[in-house]
Inverse folding.
Protein backbone atom coordinates (compact mmCIF):
# COMPACT_ATOMS: atom_id res chain seq x y z
CA UNK A 1 0.00 0.00 0.00
CA UNK A 2 2.09 2.84 -1.30
CA UNK A 3 0.98 6.08 -2.93
CA UNK A 4 2.52 8.79 -5.05
CA UNK A 5 2.57 12.18 -3.32
CA UNK A 6 0.51 13.50 -6.25
CA UNK A 7 -2.22 10.91 -5.76
CA UNK A 8 -5.64 12.26 -4.71
CA UNK A 9 -5.62 9.77 -1.84
CA UNK A 10 -2.48 8.77 0.02
CA UNK A 11 -2.11 5.59 2.06
CA UNK A 12 0.78 5.00 4.43
CA UNK A 13 1.47 2.57 7.21
CA UNK A 14 2.77 2.92 10.76
CA UNK A 15 3.12 -0.70 11.88
CA UNK A 16 -0.45 -2.08 12.02
CA UNK A 17 -2.10 1.32 11.46
CA UNK A 18 -3.03 2.46 7.95
CA UNK A 19 -3.45 6.19 7.41
CA UNK A 20 -5.73 7.19 4.52
CA UNK A 21 -5.24 10.84 3.56
CA UNK A 22 -7.49 12.93 1.31
CA UNK A 23 -4.92 14.79 -0.77
CA UNK A 24 -6.28 17.82 -2.61
CA UNK A 25 -5.22 20.45 -0.08
CA UNK A 26 -5.31 23.30 -2.60
CA UNK A 27 -9.13 22.92 -2.84
CA UNK A 28 -9.62 21.90 0.80
CA UNK A 29 -9.96 18.26 -0.22
CA UNK A 30 -13.08 18.80 -2.29
CA UNK A 31 -14.22 15.48 -3.68
CA UNK A 32 -13.79 15.10 -7.43
CA UNK A 33 -14.12 11.89 -9.44
CA UNK A 34 -10.46 10.94 -9.12
CA UNK A 35 -10.45 11.35 -5.35
CA UNK A 36 -13.75 9.52 -4.86
CA UNK A 37 -12.65 6.61 -7.01
CA UNK A 38 -9.29 6.43 -5.25
CA UNK A 39 -10.94 6.59 -1.82
CA UNK A 40 -13.32 3.73 -2.62
CA UNK A 41 -10.32 1.61 -3.64
CA UNK A 42 -8.06 2.65 -0.74
CA UNK A 43 -10.66 1.90 1.90
CA UNK A 44 -11.46 -1.47 0.34
CA UNK A 45 -7.74 -2.32 0.36
CA UNK A 46 -7.14 -1.45 4.01
CA UNK A 47 -10.39 -3.13 5.05
CA UNK A 48 -9.27 -6.40 3.43
CA UNK A 49 -5.63 -6.28 4.57
CA UNK A 50 -5.18 -8.55 7.62
CA UNK A 51 -1.96 -6.74 8.51
CA UNK A 52 -3.96 -3.54 9.11
CA UNK A 53 -5.65 -3.56 12.51
CA UNK A 54 -6.73 0.09 12.73
CA UNK A 55 -7.27 2.89 10.21
CA UNK A 56 -7.02 6.68 10.34
CA UNK A 57 -8.95 8.86 7.88
CA UNK A 58 -7.73 12.44 7.59
CA UNK A 59 -7.14 15.30 5.17
CA UNK A 60 -3.98 16.96 3.87
CA UNK A 61 -3.50 20.64 4.55
CA UNK A 62 -5.84 22.78 6.61
CA UNK A 63 -9.16 21.02 5.85
CA UNK A 64 -10.53 17.55 6.42
CA UNK A 65 -13.00 17.66 3.52
CA UNK A 66 -15.42 20.29 2.22
CA UNK A 67 -17.59 17.77 0.37
CA UNK A 68 -18.31 17.57 -3.32
CA UNK A 69 -16.21 19.58 -5.77
CA UNK A 70 -18.94 21.93 -7.02
CA UNK A 71 -17.05 22.82 -10.18
CA UNK A 72 -17.10 19.20 -11.24
CA UNK A 73 -20.71 18.89 -10.10
CA UNK A 74 -21.80 21.84 -12.24
CA UNK A 75 -20.21 20.24 -15.29
CA UNK A 76 -21.95 16.95 -14.50
CA UNK A 77 -25.30 18.73 -14.12
CA UNK A 78 -24.87 20.17 -17.57
CA UNK A 79 -24.63 16.61 -18.87
CA UNK A 80 -27.79 15.57 -16.99
CA UNK A 81 -28.98 15.13 -13.42
CA UNK A 82 -28.88 11.33 -13.60
CA UNK A 83 -25.18 11.43 -14.41
CA UNK A 84 -24.46 14.08 -11.79
CA UNK A 85 -26.03 12.10 -8.95
CA UNK A 86 -24.79 8.63 -9.93
CA UNK A 87 -21.81 9.47 -7.73
CA UNK A 88 -23.93 9.02 -4.59
CA UNK A 89 -24.55 5.38 -5.43
CA UNK A 90 -21.14 4.74 -7.00
CA UNK A 91 -18.89 6.57 -4.54
CA UNK A 92 -20.40 8.16 -1.45
CA UNK A 93 -22.47 5.20 -0.33
CA UNK A 94 -19.68 2.61 -0.79
CA UNK A 95 -17.20 4.87 1.02
CA UNK A 96 -19.43 5.22 4.07
CA UNK A 97 -20.45 1.56 4.02
CA UNK A 98 -16.83 0.42 3.99
CA UNK A 99 -15.83 2.77 6.82
CA UNK A 100 -18.77 1.72 8.97
CA UNK A 101 -18.58 -2.02 8.38
CA UNK A 102 -14.89 -2.85 7.99
CA UNK A 103 -13.89 -5.35 10.70
CA UNK A 104 -11.42 -2.98 12.37
CA UNK A 105 -11.69 0.41 14.07
CA UNK A 106 -11.52 3.62 12.02
CA UNK A 107 -10.44 6.92 13.59
CA UNK A 108 -11.40 10.22 11.96
CA UNK A 109 -8.61 12.78 12.41
CA UNK A 110 -10.61 15.91 11.61
CA UNK A 111 -7.82 18.40 11.05
CA UNK A 112 -9.98 21.27 9.78
CA UNK A 113 -13.16 22.22 7.93
CA UNK A 114 -15.50 19.24 7.67
CA UNK A 115 -18.80 19.75 5.86
CA UNK A 116 -21.25 17.94 3.61
CA UNK A 117 -20.06 14.49 2.58
CA UNK A 118 -16.88 15.15 4.56
CA UNK A 119 -18.97 15.30 7.73
CA UNK A 120 -20.71 12.11 6.66
CA UNK A 121 -17.35 10.37 6.29
CA UNK A 122 -16.17 11.56 9.71
CA UNK A 123 -19.36 10.47 11.47
CA UNK A 124 -19.15 7.02 9.85
CA UNK A 125 -15.84 6.50 11.64
CA UNK A 126 -15.83 4.73 15.00
CA UNK A 127 -13.86 7.35 16.92
CA UNK A 128 -13.15 11.00 16.22
CA UNK A 129 -10.39 13.47 17.01
CA UNK A 130 -11.53 17.01 16.26
CA UNK A 131 -9.34 20.06 15.73
CA UNK A 132 -10.55 22.79 18.09
CA UNK A 133 -10.62 25.20 15.13
CA UNK A 134 -12.56 22.94 12.72
CA UNK A 135 -15.75 24.29 11.17
CA UNK A 136 -18.54 21.70 10.91
CA UNK A 137 -21.77 21.83 8.90
CA UNK A 138 -24.15 19.64 6.93
CA UNK A 139 -24.25 22.18 4.05
CA UNK A 140 -26.59 20.24 1.74
CA UNK A 141 -29.70 22.41 1.88
CA UNK A 142 -27.58 25.47 1.14
CA UNK A 143 -27.34 24.21 -2.44
CA UNK A 144 -30.83 22.74 -2.61
CA UNK A 145 -29.91 19.16 -1.76
CA UNK A 146 -30.61 16.70 1.02
CA UNK A 147 -28.37 14.35 2.98
CA UNK A 148 -26.07 11.71 1.59
CA UNK A 149 -23.10 9.81 3.02
CA UNK A 150 -25.28 8.44 5.82
CA UNK A 151 -25.82 11.77 7.57
CA UNK A 152 -29.58 11.35 7.95
CA UNK A 153 -28.89 8.24 10.03
CA UNK A 154 -25.71 9.15 11.88
CA UNK A 155 -26.97 12.55 12.98
CA UNK A 156 -30.40 11.38 14.13
CA UNK A 157 -28.95 8.36 15.91
CA UNK A 158 -26.26 10.37 17.70
CA UNK A 159 -27.93 13.65 18.59
CA UNK A 160 -31.64 13.00 18.17
CA UNK A 161 -34.13 13.79 15.44
CA UNK A 162 -34.92 17.34 16.58
CA UNK A 163 -31.35 18.64 16.57
CA UNK A 164 -30.56 16.67 13.40
CA UNK A 165 -33.39 18.52 11.65
CA UNK A 166 -32.00 21.84 12.85
CA UNK A 167 -28.54 21.08 11.50
CA UNK A 168 -29.82 19.78 8.18
CA UNK A 169 -32.69 22.17 7.46
CA UNK A 170 -30.93 25.32 8.65
CA UNK A 171 -27.44 24.27 7.57
CA UNK A 172 -26.10 25.94 10.71
CA UNK A 173 -22.38 25.74 11.33
CA UNK A 174 -21.33 24.23 14.61
CA UNK A 175 -18.14 23.71 16.58
CA UNK A 176 -16.37 20.52 17.63
CA UNK A 177 -17.14 21.36 21.26
CA UNK A 178 -20.84 21.51 20.39
CA UNK A 179 -20.56 18.26 18.43
CA UNK A 180 -19.13 16.45 21.44
CA UNK A 181 -21.62 18.00 23.88
CA UNK A 182 -24.54 17.00 21.65
CA UNK A 183 -23.43 13.38 21.42
CA UNK A 184 -21.38 13.03 18.23
CA UNK A 185 -18.49 11.76 20.31
CA UNK A 186 -14.76 12.22 20.08
CA UNK A 187 -12.21 14.47 21.69
CA UNK A 188 -11.29 18.05 20.84
CA UNK A 189 -7.60 18.93 20.69
CA UNK A 190 -5.38 21.74 19.44
CA UNK A 191 -4.92 21.70 15.64
CA UNK A 192 -1.28 20.71 15.93
CA UNK A 193 -2.19 17.74 18.13
CA UNK A 194 -4.79 16.12 15.85
CA UNK A 195 -2.41 13.85 13.93
CA UNK A 196 -0.47 12.63 16.96
CA UNK A 197 -3.60 12.10 19.06
CA UNK A 198 -5.27 10.12 16.30
CA UNK A 199 -2.16 8.01 15.76
CA UNK A 200 -1.85 7.26 19.47
CA UNK A 201 -5.50 6.23 19.57
CA UNK A 202 -5.21 4.07 16.45
CA UNK A 203 -2.05 2.38 17.74
CA UNK A 204 -3.85 1.55 20.97
CA UNK A 205 -6.67 -0.01 18.98
CA UNK A 206 -4.26 -1.84 16.68
CA UNK A 207 -2.75 -3.52 19.73
CA UNK A 208 -6.16 -4.69 20.92
CA UNK A 209 -8.50 -7.64 20.28
CA UNK A 210 -9.40 -7.08 16.63
CA UNK A 211 -12.09 -9.76 16.44
CA UNK A 212 -13.83 -8.37 19.51
CA UNK A 213 -13.72 -4.87 18.01
CA UNK A 214 -15.25 -6.12 14.76
CA UNK A 215 -18.06 -7.93 16.55
CA UNK A 216 -18.70 -4.90 18.76
CA UNK A 217 -18.92 -2.56 15.74
CA UNK A 218 -21.42 -4.84 14.07
CA UNK A 219 -23.58 -5.36 17.16
CA UNK A 220 -23.81 -1.65 17.93
CA UNK A 221 -24.47 -0.65 14.32
CA UNK A 222 -27.36 -3.11 13.93
CA UNK A 223 -28.87 -2.92 17.44
CA UNK A 224 -31.69 -0.56 16.50
CA UNK A 225 -32.88 -2.95 13.80
CA UNK A 226 -33.37 -5.95 16.10
CA UNK A 227 -35.75 -6.95 18.83
CA UNK A 228 -34.38 -7.58 22.31
CA UNK A 229 -34.58 -11.34 21.81
CA UNK A 230 -32.73 -11.10 18.49
CA UNK A 231 -30.11 -8.87 20.10
CA UNK A 232 -29.54 -11.34 22.93
CA UNK A 233 -29.21 -14.20 20.46
CA UNK A 234 -26.83 -12.24 18.26
CA UNK A 235 -24.70 -11.26 21.26
CA UNK A 236 -24.49 -14.90 22.34
CA UNK A 237 -23.25 -15.95 18.91
CA UNK A 238 -20.79 -13.08 18.71
CA UNK A 239 -19.49 -13.82 22.19
CA UNK A 240 -18.91 -17.45 21.20
CA UNK A 241 -16.93 -16.34 18.14
CA UNK A 242 -14.79 -14.04 20.30
CA UNK A 243 -14.42 -16.80 22.88
CA UNK A 244 -12.86 -19.08 20.28
CA UNK A 245 -10.02 -16.64 19.56
CA UNK A 246 -6.46 -16.95 20.78
CA UNK A 247 -6.77 -13.37 22.02
CA UNK A 248 -9.51 -14.30 24.49
CA UNK A 249 -7.75 -17.42 25.77
CA UNK A 250 -4.46 -15.59 26.12
CA UNK A 251 -6.08 -12.67 27.93
CA UNK A 252 -7.79 -14.94 30.46
CA UNK A 253 -4.50 -16.72 31.12
CA UNK A 254 -2.72 -13.38 31.52
CA UNK A 255 -5.41 -12.07 33.87
CA UNK A 256 -5.16 -15.11 36.13
CA UNK A 257 -1.38 -14.78 36.16
CA UNK A 258 -1.73 -11.07 36.98
CA UNK A 259 0.01 -10.17 33.72
CA UNK A 260 -0.83 -7.66 31.02
CA UNK A 261 -2.49 -9.39 28.05
CA UNK A 262 -1.18 -9.01 24.52
CA UNK A 263 -3.45 -9.36 21.52
CA UNK A 264 -2.50 -10.76 18.12
CA UNK A 265 -5.77 -9.83 16.48
CA UNK A 266 -6.99 -13.39 16.03
Amino acid sequence: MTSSESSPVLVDRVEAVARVVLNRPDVRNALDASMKTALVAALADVAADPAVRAVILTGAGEAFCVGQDLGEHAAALAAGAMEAFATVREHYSPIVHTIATMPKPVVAAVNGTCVGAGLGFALACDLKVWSATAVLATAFTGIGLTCDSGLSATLARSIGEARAKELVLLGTRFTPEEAVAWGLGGQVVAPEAVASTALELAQRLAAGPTVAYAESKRLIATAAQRSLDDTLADEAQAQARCGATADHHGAVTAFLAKQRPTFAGR
